[in-house]
Specification:
755 residues; alpha/beta; eight-stranded mixed β-sheet
Length: 755
């Protein structure tokens, strides 16, 4: 059963034409379950009905012609109940709707299963039989499992078809809904950066020049065969002859009489070399997977290995240097810092990351750069984005593909409005950060991307509240040396002379991976990351601390921040190593007139456990900084990079706000300096709530600084203190936002803030 399910789903996923995919689906299901009829209906939410899209058993002329309302018939009932309906005599059921055009009079037994994606019913899959019987539990289980697996595949297929139609017609606008990653609106041309060479990441694509693709395929095969020859020679003295025979098998599989012939045929049909290779390799591998003989089943693994090697060489022979469009909308499976470095800042207007969510690091980087971003759009394969004209609406999380000129003009007007609002905020950047009643605030910037530091205005800020040291590590292909780190940290400390610069020690793991230090874990956000990693590798930690302390000579504005602290023992061990590094440097400087300034040490509050140890913590450290991104993630048990649960991740959740309020009260009582360096500080609603709680030091992306200063200068602390009890009494993030919106509306500020 499992192999049949896998084959049916893969066949649907590989077929680029939706109607053909559905036609193959119903035939395969009918044959697998040995029933007399299988049909699939897809939901049309504009028309409020299910349309018969494919059938094997009903009248084929009814396909695309017959629709059933959402509240009509058994199909509508399956959709309403969102669960399987299994009937022995369907025609006797009161919900049964007679539709003569489909010719289903001869069927009695009916089993319908909803196809649901992200809580939305996409369609209904049915099987029918003439015999009056209830379908078995195994049959029902098969259909339910198939429906679950088909959901995302069908969404992909619909998106592919919609994108293809838009690219051909260029008449209607394809609107895609994602997650808002960074605010703003931009218009540009899609530029795709491909992921690593992996069959799962290869999207099926047709081309106009088969001969060119054949040439690329032959070249990759030639390189692969030469590679096998070298491997066979190298292993000849270490493996018995029967084991070495596998290399001969690989040679034979690549020959024209075997896989090679099938791949050539696919290329002649118009598929690009990568797509042809993927289709043939997966087809043959599945055939072996389904065989009973264990030896033959293993050949499926051999075919996949062979295909992967050819794919690697195909990608190596591709032309990697594309001409960048004038206005680049960077599209990638998962946008990384290295990808951003490849695009000149002057040309980069927006980011589309198919994976990730509002608080993934791709989104954080976009906000740091002050450019719009939309996340979580993996329903549309990568190649469909290339060279498309795109409107990216980072406020609403929408992408408009190939928009009409009238729509482009509307969005150009919105971009002009944004520019006017930004100019209004910037006009007050030189003024003090304070409330309307004169209460002072400290506004600092989050930094880490070199490109971001260039846009920071040191004279208008109170320093750097969070310098992410991991990005310089990520941008290299090895650990940076102590000398390299000293040079970098000196520039950062000197960029804000006489002002505090908070440097977070290396915080990798989770969604921040080093290319030269791979960490593979099932639950990376709960695993080996932040201080846990660097304490396990004191050689990394000590070098970084030494570099920071040396860079601070002559500056005296260094604050060291420890990330991912979950208990006091980690603080003690970190302080011991910092003390060790200080003693080492003091010895090195003995006999010189150079003085080593003392750096303040703080802890990042992002793991809930440390929230309950503030009294003990206050006796060990100089300050705390609350990372609201991870704190929200851990309090709500939501992976902030997972678009499937992105709707549950919300820093405005009452539990998060109440935790922040309790920490503020406790920190004030302990006289422990506490700042906010998470994304919440850069949101208008967030900063108002935090200010009402008593927080007065905020660190944010430089792109948000002017807006936040402008807003704070227009509110009184007494007004915020009256707002706070209403906020803390809310039972949902939606209620919180409504309360803040009501407050801003009463102050006539709502229309002057776009968020």
């Amino acid at each position: 059963m499992l192999s049949q399910l896998r084959r049916i789903v893969q066949d649907v996923a590989q077929e680029p034409v939706l109607n053909n995919a559905l036609a193959g689906l119903v035939s395969n299901v009918k044959n697998a379950l040995k029933t007399e009829c299988c049909s699939v209906y897809l939901a049309d939410y504009e028309q409020q009905h299910f349309m018969l899209m494919a059938t094997d058993g009903l009248n084929p002329e009814a396909v695309g012609q017959i629709s059933i309302g959402f509240s009509e018939g058994l199909i509508g009932w399956v959709g309403q109940r969102e669960e399987p309906i299994n009937l022995a005599q369907a025609h006797l059921h009161p919900r049964f709707k007679v539709t003569p055009e489909v010719s289903e009079d001869r069927f009695s037994a009916f089993l319908g299963c909803p196809i649901i994606h992200h809580r939305k019913v996409l369609g209904v899959l049915t099987i029918q039989q003439g015999e009056s019987r209830v379908f078995s539990e195994d049959e029902e289980s098969f259909l339910v499992t198939l429906g679950v697996q088909l959901a995302s595949v069908l969404v992909h297929a619909e998106m592919r078809q919609a994108a293809s139609q838009n690219s051909k017609q260029q008449k209607s606008t394809g609107q895609l809904q994602g997650l808002p990653g960074a605010p703003g609106i931009a218009i540009g041309e899609g530029f795709v950066l491909e992921p690593s060479s992996d069959f799962d990441a290869i999207s099926l694509k047709k081309v106009d020049d088969p001969e060119k693709e054949l040439s690329r395929f032959y070249k990759a095969v030639k390189i692969t065969k030469a590679e096998f020859n070298r491997l066979a020679e190298r292993m000849a003295g270490h493996l018995p002859p029967d084991a070495l025979a596998i290399f001969d098998v690989y040679h034979q599989l690549l020959d024209a009489a075997s896989l090679g012939n099938e791949i050539e045929k696919q290329i002649h049909e118009g598929w690009c070399a990568k797509s042809a290779l993927k289709r043939v390799v997966e087809k043959f591998a599945r055939q072996f997977d389904d065989m009973d003989d264990p030896y033959l089943r293993e050949r499926g693994t051999d075919i996949r290995d062979l295909g992967q090697r050819v794919l690697n060489h195909l990608l190596d022979t591709e032309q990697r240097h594309h001409k960048l469009p004038e206005k680049v909308v960077l599209v990638a499976d998962n946008v990384t810092a290295t990808m951003l470095a490849e695009i000149p800042r002057a040309q980069l207007v927006a980011i589309v990351s198919l994976k990730g969510s509002v608080n993934s690091h791709a989104a954080i980087m976009a906000r740091a750069l002050g450019i719009p971003a939309v996340m979580g759009l993996d329903e549309l394969p990568l190649f469909h984005w290339q060279s498309k004209r795109l409107i990216v609406d980072g406020y609403r999380g929408q992408i408009l593909v190939a928009p009409a000129e009238a729509i482009v003009a509307e969005y150009q007007a919105l971009i002009s409005e944004d520019a006017q609002l930004s100019a209004r905020y910037q006009s007050e950047m030189h003024l003090n950060a304070q409330s309307a009643c004169g209460a002072p605030f400290s506004l600092m910037v989050n930094a880490g991307l070199a490109i971001e530091l260039e846009s920071t205005q040191p004279s208008y800020t109170d320093g750097i509240g969070l310098y992410r040291t991991e990005f310089p590590f990520i941008m290299r292909n090895r650990f940076p040396t102590e000398a390299e780190q000293i040079e970098l940290y000196k520039k950062v400390l000197a960029s804000h002379p006489t002002k505090a610069v908070v440097m977070r020690t290396l915080d990798v793991g989770g969604d921040k991976a080093l290319p030269y230090f791979s960490i593979i874990e099932e639950n990376p956000f709960l695993g080996w990351r932040g201080i846990r990693l660097t304490l396990d590798h004191p050689e990394i930690f000590l070098v970084q601390i030494r570099a920071m302390l040396k860079a601070n000579i002559g500056q005296g504005n260094l604050h060291i921040l420890l990330p991912m602290i979950s208990d006091l023992a980690e603080v003690d061990e970190s302080l011991r190593l910092i003390k060790q590094a200080t003693f080492e440097l003091t010895d090195e400087l003995a006999g010189t007139e150079i003085q080593l300034p003392k750096a303040k040490v703080g802890v990042m509050i992002e793991v809930p456990s440390i929230m309950y140890q503030l009294p003990e913590l206050a006796r060990k450290i100089d300050f705390c900084s609350v990372g609201t991104n991870d704190l929200t993630q851990y309090l709500l048990a939501v992976d902030r990079n997972n678009p499937r649960v992105a709707g549950l991740y919300d820093a405005m959740h009452p539990a998060v706000l109440r935790a922040l309020h309790q920490m503020s009260l406790q920190a004030q009582g302990l006289q422990l300096p506490m700042s906010i360096c998470g994304e919440l500080a850069g949101e208008p609603a967030g900063v108002l709530i935090l200010a009402a709680m008593g927080y007065d030091k905020f660190s944010m992306n430089s792109s948000n600084l002017a807006k936040i200063k402008w807003l704070l200068r227009r509110v009184n602390m007494s007004e915020l203190q009256l707002l706070l009890p209403e906020i803390l009494a809310c039972q949902s993030p939606k209620q919180v936002r409504l309360q803040v919106q009501r407050f801003l509306d009463q102050k006539q500020l709502l229309n002057q803030l776009r968020a």
